[in-house]
Amino acid sequence: MRSTSNPAFRNLPSGGYAGFQTQTQGYDQSPPGYGGHPAPPTSADRPMTVDDVVTKTAVTLGVGLITGIITAIAVLSHAVSPYPLMITGLVAGLVLSLVVIFKRTPNPALVLGYSVAEGLFLGAITGVVEQIRGAQGIGVQAILGTAIVFVTMLVVYKTGAVKVTPKLTKWIIGATVGAAGLMLVNLLLSAFGVHTGLREAGPLGIGISLLFIGIAAFNFLLDFDMADRMIRSGTPAKFAWYVAFGLMTTLVWLYLEILRLLWMLQSSD
After folding, report:
1. How far is CA 150 from CA 6, 31, 60, 231, in A?
2. Would 104 be classed as within a structural domain?
3. How much is the pTM?
4. Looking at residue 201, what DSSP letter applies?
5. How many alpha carbons lie under 13 Å from residue 138 in its C-beta half-sphere?
6. Kind plus residue range of the DSSP H or E element containing 137
7. Would 257 be classed as within a structural domain?
8. What's the domain range around 61?
9. 24 exposed, middle or buried (CB, 10 Å; 0-12, 13-18, 19+)?
10. Of 264, 222, 263, which Cα lies nearest the Cα of 10?
11. Is residue 43 a part of any domain in this protein?
12. Lowest-pLDDT choice from 134-148, 190-204, 214-228, 249-263
């Protein structure tokens, strides 16, 4: 099985679910206790379908989007201070994501809670950018940009324009790890007063953001491929929440990078 850079999928139980369907074969409708086979699996244990993935992903993204819009409006109207919301969303999102990843249980409440936390975080950041930097409408532009990239990569994947091969997978994972390492080093240097310009308005910062947007976009190919293989192998339907969580993490990164890029482009005018 190919790997993926998305921590949600990397921590799924090993061995796959290829044998799941064989576990449910042969049962009949005889009442329990009368010599019949056990009752059929519940709806959560039946094999995952594309509809499961689409539905759970739509719910997860919808909750995050609505939370983000409400938060941004509240910040822009000066109804709330953005920084407590930003910190709360950041910390809660980090904690919930770690719980989802390491607990390895596709709990809808945890996934939706993560979506709400990210909505608070992204909404507060968007409100601050529009309020302090005077970049009106940048949030809507970032949402549209994120949606366009997502749909484009879905079309690219479905049409087979780019094949998810083991070589491409290794390249994307390496690029993602490199991007994460670069951001961490830049953050540590910034803490000591060293400004590299990697995340600031300017040619270098814009170039880095474009690179990161490209890496995030290609991560969608790995997410789509992993979801496809989970469906083909008969993974229980409840793991569709895991797929939704994985896609949400990539979307959050992509949105932040597009928001930063738009801000830098407006700042350089």
Report:
1. 16, 48, 15, 20
2. yes
3. 0.84
4. S
5. 29
6. none
7. yes
8. 48-267
9. middle
10. 222
11. no
12. 190-204
